[in-house]
Amino acid sequence: MTFFYIVSILVLLELGLYLVVNLQRSKFQWLITTRDELPKFDQLALEKFHKTSFDPHLGWVRKPRSSGTEQGWEGPINFSIDATGSRNNRFNSAPAMIAAFGDSYTFCRQVEDDETWEAQVADAGEFGVLNYGVGNYGIDQALLRYESIELPSSVKVVVMGFVPETISRIQSYWKHYLEFGNTFAFKPRFTLEPGGQLRLVENRIRDLSDYARLPEYLSEIQQTDHFYRSKFRALQYRLPYTLSLLRHPIKQTSLLAALAIRGCARLLGITSEYSENQPFMQVMKANICDAQKLYRDTESRKLLAAICYRFKLAAEAKGHLPLLLIMPQLLDLKMSIDRENTSYQSFYSELEHQMDVLDMTSCFMETDFEDLYINDQYGGHLSVEGNRMVAERIMTWLAGKDAIHQP
User: Fold this and answer.
1) What is the reported pLDDT for 375?
2) Domains of the chain (ranges, CATH numbers)
3) What's the CA gap between 190 and 167, in Å, rounded?
4) CA–CA separation, 82 vs 86, rounded Å?
5) Model's pTM, two decimal places?
6) pLDDT tens-digit series, residues 133-156
């Protein structure tokens, strides 16, 4: 009889978990099942992505002469891209001396064209600053874009700006395995050969028709992407669901609890910013923790260091002075308050022996840093004030480079 009760409880638990996961899956992309191994593409959305963002080499890019609007914390935020692919700002009437490449913290999401740190540097320095940042880029994509673009001869400095989480992004080949549900985003990546040389693995999806042929490429993509087994398969719900939950019990139960609270709040009509954002914040925190672990992994550090060094060599070959700019996310700072030094700070501190590095972490930590960020759905991009602080530090760095100011 006892055995019967135990089996009954296990069956009920399995059935309940199966129903909850599959019910929430359609409402929250970070719950994945075996159906997400080969997701169905929304053809209209895919065609729009292909028209507005797709790039066969880099994966995606801001198209020249495009513009857009996104919802900011206090209202709509507008952006526009010039004919070269750089974000516009009204201070760029003078010849460009700086070109910036990187992720959304370089593009400067959530602030207007004239409020980016690039625009503020251009205003203070009275020279042009080109902004080639692209949301969700890793330093690998940003480097490849820099290597392939023809910059004006007036450019003397190239800034490579990114968040610490770039150590994860450079090991991603299909973003869906790192950011569940980001199914359109395929990208190139570098791997490190036994001799320490970088090898470029080109983007496998080169045209709209390649999405339809994804099953042919899937095995190759899974082998190339670091996160297919370490994250995607590890957190995927497969029968029996109970065992799937027990593979990562704390992470999985915390996320299910946050979704349950959000669902109950919606049902009762008492939703709040906290209940709505908590599930995604659980994911964001986990991502930051995962990135910190990679900074303690020898092979991951070697790969990132090799990419940074390739940037240095590429800049020097073009006659540019390279600068690495590290801009922590809000959660990076919140999760490191009780630590004197984070794993990523140690990494970039060591890298300073080889090239110029400007890590904004300590500078931000000396302030009431929450004012430097906007409480957006992506975990907090820099506010106008945060971008101003970055601009000031870059201007201070420039002041110490006499060669830059020589005619």
Assistant:
1) 77
2) 2-39+235-265 (no CATH), 64-163+322-407 (3.40.50.1110)
3) 12
4) 5
5) 0.95
6) 999 999 999 999 999 999 999 999
